[in-house]
Amino acid sequence: MNTKRNGHINGSHHHGNGNGAAPVLITGGAGFIGTNLAHRLLSSHTPVILYDNLSRPGVEQNLDWLRATHGNLVQFEPADVRDCETLRGAVQRASQVFHFAAQVAVTTSLDDPTEDFEINARGTLNMLEALRSLPNPPPLIFTSTNKVYGTMDDVKLRVRDGRYEPEDSIARENGFSEARHLHFHSPYGCSKGAAEQYVLDYSRTFGLRTTVFRMSCIYGLHQFGNEDQGWVAHFFDSRASERTHRDLRRWPAGARRFVCRRFGERVFTRAKKHRDALRTSIQHWRRSGEYD
Ligand SMILES: NC(=O)c1ccc[n+]([C@@H]2O[C@H](COP(=O)([O-])OP(=O)(O)OC[C@H]3O[C@@H](n4cnc5c(N)ncnc54)[C@H](O)[C@@H]3O)[C@@H](O)[C@H]2O)c1
């Protein structure tokens, strides 16, 4: 994960729109990452506004689960980030903002680059303008993507213990530097890349307190993966069918090791050569509660 910081997200600076009980606004709050964050905040009795148009199939189940688990600490705003007026209303009530709502699939961005741009780039600009209109705007966290770095063909890899890793020890130990040059790839990469640059510049130019995370291939609980996005979850949901198993054997060694990240917790599992072994590891994983 790569982080770019401007301002002080966790500083003591207090926003001007309410008291300590003001809710945290999470756009895309019914989605995978939004639901995990909301659950964490709600578990410490922090109220949240989930701002989501429920366009991702399945995420209404996350909304139901959060409501059933946390009751009226959960506020739901069924709205689109392209709806400036409703967005502004939600931002005005917030103590902090996490902007996760997005068109998240590279494939869909290839089918309809305009809609991808409208949701990701324009939707983020709508958010920034809503914040800028406030006398004392709350801080903003934005989730960008590794697609802003392009193919990274220059990074030399080696295979060690069945997985690929960078040859360069600094990259191996610390990940990639923020100084790395940007190469937006795919319409999705361009719309998210444009959005993150606006987020950073609204800090520089207008003094908003913003942070950008550049993330890659996260998966875990509450994710409704499909072939277009969230494919690791989708793969395990398909329960190692014959076809999946056949496909898997053609994959390179590194691709057969998956790294699961669940907000600080890590589980490693290796998809084995034989279907039975793969089944066993999935059953074990399900029993351990890390995935269902
Ligand atoms: N999961 C990953 O591996 C990953 C990697 C890099 C970046 N990201 C970024 O993290 C963020 C969250 O990703 P996620 O994995 O939780 O995705 P997700 O699809 O589970 O969640 C996104 C949520 O946004 C909602 N949404 C989509 N368009 C909307 C719109 N126009 N208005 C309002 N709501 C809308 C969806 O209904 C969904 O609930 C996204 O911005 C994504 O680009 C995710």
Would you mind describing this structure in some detail?
The structure is a single chain. The protein is an alpha/beta fold. The chain has 2 domains: 2-215, 3-Layer(aba) Sandwich (Rossmann fold); 238-287, no CATH class. It is built from 10 helices and 11 strands. It has a 7-stranded mixed beta sheet, sandwiched between helices. It has a two-stranded antiparallel ribbon with strand order 7-8. A two-stranded antiparallel sheet has the order 10-11. Mean pLDDT is 81; it is low at 1-19, 252-282 and 288-292. Nicotinamide-adenine-dinucleotide (NAD) binds next to helix 1, helix 5 and strand 6.
Short précis:
The chain has helices at residues 32-43, 59-70, 84-92, 106-111, 113-132, 169-174, 186-206, 231-237, 242-249, 275-287; strands at 2-6, 24-27, 48-51, 74-77, 96-99, 140-145, 157-160, 163-166, 210-215, 257-262, 265-270. The protein has 292 residues and is α/β, with parallel strands linked by helices.
